[in-house]
Write a structure and sequence with these properties.
Elements (H helix, E strand, L loop, with lengths): L6 H17 L5 H17 L3 H32 L6 H54 L16 H17 L8 H9 L12 H10 L5 H34 L6 H32 L17 H4 L5 H16 L2 H39 L3 H30 L7 H23 L3 H13 L18 H22 L4 H6 L3 H18 L17
Helix pairs in contact: 1-2, 2-6, 3-4, 3-5, 3-6, 4-5, 6-7, 8-9, 8-16, 8-18, 9-14, 9-15, 11-12, 12-13, 13-14, 14-15
Amino acid sequence: MTSYCSLLYLGIFLPGVILGYQLSPRKLRPYVLLAASYVFFWEFSGKLLVYLLFTTLSMYLFGLAMAGLQKKRGEQVAALKTQGLPKDELKEARKAIKARSQKQQRLVMLAAVLIQLGILSVLKYSAFFLTNWNSLSGLLGLPLQVTVPSFIAPIGISFYTLQAVSYLVDVYRETQEAEKNLSRLALYMVFFPTIMEGPICRFAQVAGSLWEGNAITWHNLTYGIQRIAFGMLKKMVIADRLNSVIETIYTDYAKYDGGIIALGMFFYTCQLYMEFSGTMDVVIGSGQIFGVTLPENFRQPFLSRTIGKFWTRWHITLGTWFKDYIFYPLSMSKPLNKLTVKARKRLGNHFGPMIAAGIALSAVWFSNGLWHGAGWNYLFFGVYHFAWILLENITEPFVVGFAEKHGIDREARWYVIMQIVRTTLLVNVGELFFRAEGLRAGFKMFGSMVSDFTLKSFFDGTILTLGMDAQDFLITLVALVLVLSIHLLWEKGTDLRDQLARQKTPVRWAVYYGFLFFIILFGAYGVGYLPVDPIYAAF
């Protein structure tokens, strides 16, 4: 089982779980999902399952500990009312109880979060930081070399760790009650469609529907399968087919001119989007079959007009996690609030708050880059997007003023298209560094695009030696047009599944079979194609 689009998952595992779930009594159905999810996790990570079990058990116990402190606080406040204290003394006593309880809960929450992030950091980042420490020590001539450990991280650790942290912080904030049913919490953590690549769910979003055990309906089954099929088209026909060209260019970039490197850059961004959003389609469709509505992770990101808007449409659940648990807590903290007040007096209402927001935003994008991987190219990727978003915010008043002065309609079609093209180009450059074999390679590839850009290789036959022939390019183009058309309809609010459901039976089944045969005939598998592991599962 290499991915959610594998024959083992779609042809054996998922149908087996559907059958076992539907044949079980309602009360046992959540346990069927739980057992299937642990089998799925074991298939990828084996004994590393112990990390997930420890994370689940520890967050369960820490959640109950915070709930106990909250209950104790309530009892102490209620007891004050029976003591007949004067109003002012009652107010002060209640304030003192709440402050003491808040401090205790904060300590429990911080300990819980540090444990979760500590496990992630040791398994995923210790080798990177210690290697760089050794390099720095050697450069300075210091006898401070340390042994670099080698750890294997379980699949999906970056995703389920963020889910654990969100649950713990929400319990601390009292926006989420501590879960007393360990099995229910465990299913939230390990639900097999989300464990490998997300989306990053909040407990309140999915816990209820996961544990209801409702029977599978015809509507959920058909709509879920349709969504799965759309994801398979993206991954198997487009993303996997592009992989051979991308591997060739990024591995031997020094052999090619800037035009070919630019092609590899655009192909990789296309592959990443089609692979990740396609996997999300399969994941969301799998969840829908069981009546579980998972949060959307993409919303036509390449129709965005700015980098900031792009990141509200791409990997949405990761972005909202960073916003809720890093950006807002930092930007609303006392030190940054004081900074904003002072800066607003000197710089005005637009630029004043931007200093504190910029500090919080830098923490978000440092974390974003590091979350994706332990490498300087990932950190540069985060800094790159932080710089562009900050620049957009700083220059917005000047852009608006320039447009008004020169009578430019910023909602005109040509202007919107220009913004979309610019944003798409900037995103692609960021993905070039993201995919490059190290930061140095990324700068060399970018330098080649700038200094040695030519279209000669597109016409002398070089392009057909990269791993795709003319037929491959044609199939990819047709599939891209099909996906783009569907996305444009979604952007306009048209749900093709609803429209298809209203058609007559022969029409519906003709579409079903046509879509299925297109994937079977033109999917990138078989002789000449190597299985492509899911990209985001590595993060």
